[in-house]
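Structure in, sequence out. Go:
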């Protein structure tokens, strides 16, 4: 396909650039005289002849696109082979790694189960530190879980969550529930 296009472009340019003069010799025409006259000079305007520039530009863009696609596919193949695989000794190691990865997201990206488990863990820490009573823990947990289901605790600004450790630092709305 490209060879045919290239041959057509070369044939077209050869036909339009070469012409016969009176002595039957081929002479290359570098410039074509335009019939447009300027208003000031009343002399003919001489323009450079560039051949069929549109077809040449189209050919160049086709070639560059094909090279881009070719290079892109090579890069994808290289990236696939560079992946690192890790092996786990037991199912517990695998489940621990999956749990760890599932909690290392922003608060608004966590699923509902993850949010509920993080809140439960946070409230357990609060009980251990003595900041809330174990009796209040159940009430607060139900209220917070209800707020999650109603999508009232979805923004990152509503809960201070550390995505690196996967732990809740603080829940500002908790002070109003107490």
């Amino acid at each position: 396909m490209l060879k045919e296009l290239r041959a057509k472009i070369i044939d077209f340019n050869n036909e339009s650039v070469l012409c016969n003069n009176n002595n039957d010799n081929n002479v290359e025409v570098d410039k074509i005289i335009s019939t447009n006259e300027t208003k000031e000079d009343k002399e003919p305007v001489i323009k450079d002849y560039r051949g069929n520039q549109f077809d040449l530009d189209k050919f160049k863009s086709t070639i560059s696109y094909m090279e881009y696609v070719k290079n892109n596919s090579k890069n994808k193949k290289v990236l696939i082979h560079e992946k690192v695989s890790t092996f786990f000794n037991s199912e517990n190691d695998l489940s621990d790694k999956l749990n760890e990865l599932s909690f290392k997201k922003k608060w608004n990206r966590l699923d509902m189960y993850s949010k509920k488990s993080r809140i439960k863990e946070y409230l357990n820490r609060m009980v251990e530190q003595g900041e809330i009573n174990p009796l209040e823990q159940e009430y607060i947990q139900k209220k917070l879980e209800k707020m999650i289901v109603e999508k009232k605790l979805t923004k990152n600004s509503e809960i201070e969550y550390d995505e690196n450790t996967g732990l809740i630092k603080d829940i500002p709305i908790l002070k109003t529930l107490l």
